[in-house]
Design goal:
Number of helices: 4
Order of helices and strands: HHEHEEEEH
Structural class: alpha+beta
Strand content: 35-45%
Radius of gyration: 14 Å
Oligomer: single chain
Largest sheet: 5 strands, mixed
Shape: globular
Helix content: 25-40%
Distance between the termini: 47 Å
């Protein structure tokens, strides 16, 4: 698959929600980055942690799903830009935090690199303030 086909399939699998199927789109080793400030988020947002493997990606998507209300969570993709092996997916997350019941909307940009039909880079830039606010405990 070329870069666009790989990204389209990744987005289809993310929408379907099976963490193992999503992880199959990633290489054995992944360059991972989340643009959150430094800190330990394991108590409030456990999916925000360093990842570098395919199994880590499955864990990421599993924890993400477990901490959001399924019927009140979606991502809206507005743009996909492709330049060779790189692609940027832009859109909005519309989620409800399961622990607090708070809804939030967070803009995002996902930069991926595709090699041999697998994602080797996953850099996500998102509105971390909106996410953190939805999960903040009083």
């Amino acid at each position: 698959m070329n870069t666009r086909e790989t990204v389209d399939e990744l987005l289809r699998r993310v929408a379907a929600g099976d963490p193992e199927q999503i992880a199959e789109m990633y290489a054995d080793h992944v360059t991972w980055m989340v643009n959150w400030p430094e800190g330990d988020y394991s108590q409030t947002t456990p999916w925000i942690r360093h990842r570098s493997t395919r199994s880590g990606m499955a864990d990421h998507f599993r924890l993400l799903a477990e901490n959001h209300v399924p019927d009140e969570s979606s991502a809206v993709v507005s743009t996909v830009l492709v330049d060779g092996a790189d692609a940027v997916v832009m859109g909005e997350l519309h989620y409800t935090a399961k622990p607090t019941g708070r809804r939030y909307v967070a803009a995002f940009a996902l930069h991926v690199t595709v090699e041999d039909g697998l994602v080797t880079r996953h850099h996500i830039y998102e509105d971390s303030l909106a996410v953190a606010g939805a999960f903040a405990r009083p």
